[in-house]
Each structure stands twice: as C-alpha cells, then as structure tokens.
Amino acid sequence: MQLLQEYRYKFVQYWRRSLTFRIVSSFVAFALTALLVVLPLRAQQPVILSILIPAPDVKPFPPLIAEFERQNPGIKINIVEGPNSSNLVEDLYSSAFLLGDSPYDLLNMDITWVPKFAAAGWLQDMSDILPEPELGKFLKGDIEGGRYKGKLYRLPYRTDVGMLYYRSDLLQQAGLKPPETFQDLMQASKAVQSKDAAQWGYVWQGRQYEGLSAMFIEVLQGNGGFWINPQTNEVGLDRPEAIDTVKFLVSTIQQGVSPPGVNTYIEEDARRLFQNGNTLFMRNWPYAWDLLNGKDSPVRGKVGIKPMIHAPDARSGACQGGWGLGISSTTRHPQEARKAVQFFTSTEAQKQLAIAGAYLPTRRELYNDRELLQRYEYFPMILKVLENPALRPPIAQYAQTSDILQRYLNAALSRQISPEEAMQSAARETRSLLGA
After folding, report:
1. Tens digit of each residue's pLDDT (9 = 90 or more) over 381-417
2. Which residue of 156, 322, 323, 431 pairs with 362 in a disulfide if CB–CB is 3.0 to 4.6 A?
3. 107 and 250 both lie in a single domain
C-alpha cells in the first residue's frame, strides 16, 4: 500500500512538471475512455448484408426479410434495387468485382452466371452449407446448375422452365387438341386465324438478349439438336438440326403465324399480346400464369399450359432457368451470409415466395403441397418437366457464347442473313472462342 502511494506521489509530481507528459497522458486517458464507450456500442450494431435484386422481383421479399431479421436480431438485410434486365444486373455484379471489393455480400444469381462467377473467384464455396441428404430434397437440375468443377457455389430458391401456353377455349371451339409437334402448332394456328378467332398464332421471345437463347435451346432440343457439349466443347450450331430449328422460327414469321415484330419481343411483350386475347399460343415462363388469370385479364380461365412442342422423333425441350443465392468472396460477414442463404432457400421461405411471387420452388416436396396445388393446378406436370430440363451450356465462357448465338440468330429472324449462314457463322465464332 505504501509502495502504491509512493508511485502515485511521483506520478503527480511528474505530471505537474512535464507539459508533454500531461498531453500524452490526457490523450491516453481519452482514448481508453472512448474505447470503453465505443466498443460496446459497436458490438450492439447489427451486421448489414447487402443484396442486389432486379426491381420487378423485389416485391415478395420484404415480408420474408422481416421474418429473417426477427429470427436473427443481429443481422439486417439491405436490398439494392437493380435494373429490370438480368443482363444489366450481371454487368453490375461483374463491374463491382472488377473494380475491387464488391459492395454485395449476397449474390442473387441467374443459373447461367455460376460458371463465370466461380471461375473468376467471385464466389465462396458452399459445398458444406447443407448436409447431402438435405441437398437431395432440391430438384437435381437446380443443384447441378449451382455447381462448378464439383463445388457448390449457388443454392436455389426459385426455379423456372419454359412452357407453352394456349387458349383452351379457342382450341375447343375449333375442335382441336393442344399441339404436340411443330406441325401441329402451325396447323392449329392457321385454322384459328382463318376463322378470325385470333390475329396471331404464336408469340415468343426473338429480341437479341438472353431470353432468345433460352427460347432457342428449347426448340433446338425439340428438334433433336444441341448447342455445346460441355464435356467435349463440341459445337452443334451448324448441324442440320440447328439449321432446321432456325428455319422453323423464321417460317412462323414468313407464314403470318407470328407477328413480324416478334424478333423484338421479350417475355412481357409476348405476355401482353397473348393476354389481350389476340393470340392462340405463347412460349413463356410460369410467372405469366397469375397475370393471365388475374381479375381484370380478358383471358382469365381460358388458358392452358403444357410442355413445349417438338419434332415427331424427338423429346420436348424446356429451358432450365431460375435464381439462387451465392456468397461474395469479398464479404466480411460470411457466417451471417450463410444463415441468410439457408433461410431463403428453406421450405417455408420458398412456399411464401411461391404464393407471393408465383415463383416455382426448388424443393420437390412443395409440388405436393395442398395449398400450392389449389393455387397452381399445373404443379405436378411442371415437376415432371423439371426432372429432365434443357440446360444451357454450363461453361465459364457462357456469356460470350450466348452473345454470339443471339447476334446471328436475331439477324436470321430479321431476314438479314439466311439460317444456314447464321448458324455456320455462329458455330465458327463459338469454336474459335472455346479453342482460345
């Protein structure tokens, strides 16, 4: 005790004599006080996870986010509304990573982005995020679409698959059944058009964008062809099946079955024209079902949905789409991000998204859910289609190969070049890209 008093006396004397010591000791005392106050406050601040979502897809998420934050009071999720086009969203992600640390902790990804993002080192490996038995409860195509070189980088919360919509009332009036083949569709379209029951027979997506590639791969598979073999990098665009596929699409325009402007259409252009009651058939994604059967829809209760048409000796092709969550390789909160991925891909969350956003779930059990079946009577049929989908080539250079296909395919649809020339040029450029 006496020694402590002696040290205290010397400290006071030295503090009085030395101005420098007084300044330094005051600064140290201030810093220690600040740390004692600030650190506890910082520890109480929630972790904020940022995610970029296309603006049209934001609506179903706030209630789910509120539930996640209730269950995880130390984590907040910040939604950044992105552009409507998925191509532009991909560009924003790419720019963010190329410029340095991405501001996004969670990555909301289209199924086709996984190889590119994983190969670039922008994603964390999530192979251990769920036990294998739990992963087995997801649709196989959606899980495989999230893998790259054997590792899992994306867990799906929403799937998608191209389908053929038809006016059941117009077909019934004409004494026709829903088409199975390309020829069936053309004949039914001309029959209904000839009676002025519909202005157009068939609408689809022909603009130069990713939707054109998705639509094309369905007709290509339905014709017995292929785009790129991901195991061998073999290109099939200049084979007879691919050229015949382009000829069929061009013929729908030439013969007046499809509108002359269909080469500029995206999903919503086709959906609006079909919903106005002027069209017999439409290729689109399942999201359109709720809109077509809305209270103010002219075609409410008059629409059917079925797998895509095909050649007599080939099987139907349905392009696998969908969105899932990945974790940025630059996030400072990987554990919190994993909790968010697990929550939004859970059975409960996917059911809510199916109800609120008309999304197709990626967990098999939900296709037998009584509440969802009352709302979406076509779920059992779509589940069969999803068990054997048409996958776009899962290669790191997918974006470039899709761009090549879109350019030449749209040029053929616009009658700038012949189908043969378009597919031969597309195949040549694609082989050059993959070889490089």
Report:
1. 999 999 878 889 989 999 999 999 999 999 999 999 9
2. 156
3. no
